[in-house]
Amino acid sequence: MPDxxxxxxxxxxxxxxxxxxxALHHRRATSAAPALAATMAGTTVWSLAALTARSGxxxxxxxxxxxxxxxxxxxxxxGTHVLYRAVADPSYRVPRPHAAxxxxxxxxxxxxxxxxxxxxxxxxxxxxxDPPRVVGGLGPLFWVHTAWSYAVCGAGLVPLLRTxxxxxxxxxxxxxxxxxxxCVPTAGNVLTLxxxxxxxxxxxxxxxTPLFFVVAGxxxxxxxxxxxxxxxxxxxxxxxxEMLADAVVVVDGGGRVVDVNPAGRDLVRRVRPHLxxxxxxxxxxxxxxxxxxxxxxxxxxxxxxxLPGLHVDVRVSALTDGxxxxxxxxxxxxxxxxxxxxxxxxxxxxDVIERLRAELQEESLRDPLTGLHNRRHLDTALVxxxxxxxxxxxxxxxxxxxxxxxxxxxxxxGHGTGDELLRTLAGVLDRGTRxxxxxxxYGGEEFVVLLPxxxxxxxxxxxxxxxxxxxxxxxxLPVLTGAGGNGAAGxxxxxxxxxxxxxxxxxxxxxxxxxxxxxxxxxAADRALYAAKAAGRDRxxxxxx
Length: 545
Known about the structure:
By secondary structure, this protein is of the alpha+beta class.
């Protein structure tokens, strides 16, 4: 009759060995991988020891196999402890003092089991049957060994149980699998140790516990290797998310919040102070609000003003499982209020710079004495006006005005009076223009008036109006008062201060009749001006007459 239990132990050893190798392949992912490998390797040795005990080979080998199985039990309990701790905290590393205590206790128990003084570990050990098998009862130190193994495993379960309630949903499912898996070998070990054969030392007691550990190991491997515990989820959760300055909110496929890092909780408290401290399980729309929820369902990145002065840059990434199936979204929000304020200040500074640049450019095109445009502006304005006129078939009139006998003003009354006279005449010309006209101080006491749309006759008529207006303008002359001081209000005896006025001579040219370009047009107006001067001043002369 085939040995069914022997076959099961052999399959158990093979299965555990393959699982251990697979876990070692993922050893760089997390400390849970080598811990799972150690647990499965211990179960492999445990199964082989049980298989050896049933093989009927020498009694010395059976005794050695018993001690080896006890060593395997310690390896399994230690590996299980580290496995649970690594899942609860992916950054966990076994402290050296803890490892030293574990090794000392395990070594002492194994030494006692090997020597078995005074039947403290096993009782009534003897050989019976054919083939001969070593059998015996369980001594008090065996139960110490058992309690120690359970204590080591239980110490790893405690942090795992504490982690489970606050873990993300996907991680909670995997932890639940580990907890269920822990129950299987416990049940098998209790059944084995409470059987009459073990308690009474009957013939051929069989330790079925490693077979149950195979089931637990496969459950753990499925939860870890396929469920993602060795991948980004725990590492990001424990080592990255908790330390991130960015607020991170994890939303499941149903639109509910499953996890929030500390920075995220702080942001939620600022923006939604009425919500409870733990927002896990609430609707994402209630936690994030319409602005951020809009980012989850639509935009991949945007900047949102959550509160006056509080701007956050929102980025959204989809979560998928190993097969690409959607699990939800991760919403990351970074406070960019300082950057936004800096950008606003920069824009304001750029606006000021642009305004100053425009003002500086305008000032560079203005005559500082009269406030009129200067000759530099005329060069551009005249070319532009002629191009527009040529395109639309319109005329352009140009008036060149010169103040008559202006030199005598400076010689007889001073440059201050001359400057005042130029400012007064500039004001007369500026007020006498229409929309679209341009008045320029051409140089010295000369002015140019640009009249888009005016032909020769129209330009002459406008020139006459401006000449008459300039003739009516006057400025007050300074007079001596008292002991020779200068004044401008009167002579000290109630008489009004004398007034000074000057006439202007005007040369008129029109495009295209008198010139085809700016230079020829100005030259024609200049010739007409000289003709007006030669004819006696205070008159208007058109080019070509």
